[in-house]
Amino acid sequence: MPEHDTLRRFIFEQLPVQGRHVHLDASWHAIQQHRDYPQPVRRLLGEALAAAALLSAMLKYEGTLSLQIRGGGPVHLLVVQCTSGLHLRGLAHWRGELAEDAGFRQLVGDGQLALTIEQIRQAERYQGIVALEGDSLAASLEGYFARSEQLPTRLWLHAGDGPAAGFLLQTVPGRDPAADAWQHVTVLADTLKPGELGSLSAQELLHRLYHEDDVRLFGAAPVAFRCHCSRERIEATLRGLGAEEVTGILKEQGKVHVDCEFCGRGYDFDAVDVQTLFVPDAQSAHSGARH
Ligand SMILES: [Zn+2]
Prior knowledge:
Hsp33 domain; CBS domain Like; five-stranded antiparallel sheet
């Protein structure tokens, strides 16, 4: 049975190792619809989305996990987000012409990778930042886990013209696996070919790698593209720009039009809307009404 847009968890019955597998199809295609990404940027974005879905288990409560790359190469910004409800969105900014086969380092150059966890029930947000390293996004993320005293974690990511897919192995908290057990599971996963990751279902993949181990595969959770943009959030962004700038745009264009970069949805603000945004009394009366 082919699986589309699903995240599945598995555990090794005899080893303190757990894992996840994600396969993105319609969700991944929907995210690409809003921009004409060059092939290598599209591949990197697909890999990042698969990674965000795999890492969403780091959300213990309702919230959002974000991965952000600030690169020194042609791809200077890449943002992907996955919510605890497995809603994905993402975008990438690039400049210049890119070779079809441009690899990770050529795309991002030197730069930083930030992993942010925002949970609704916790006021504090968590952010970890590491330098981009190695020859792949997976290597950079593994570097993050190695450095931040998180659980030992390995990732395999693939995005081509078809689906985007990812595979993750992680030790079980509080139960350090013997070095040879961890090596056993990761060496086998290293034999995965990129095409296999994109084409095999979780069950087929686990059978291909670990048919001699006892692995329990859990049910599939659906993953979907969904943008959580709203008029309120766009208003907050406009306020951040300041009255002078926004009024300037209004004068020039007759209205202020903002497209959400993640989903392409358009928001319009006319003169009255803009005035309301920047009237201090209206704002304080508004917030006062909530108390
Ligand atoms: Zn949106």
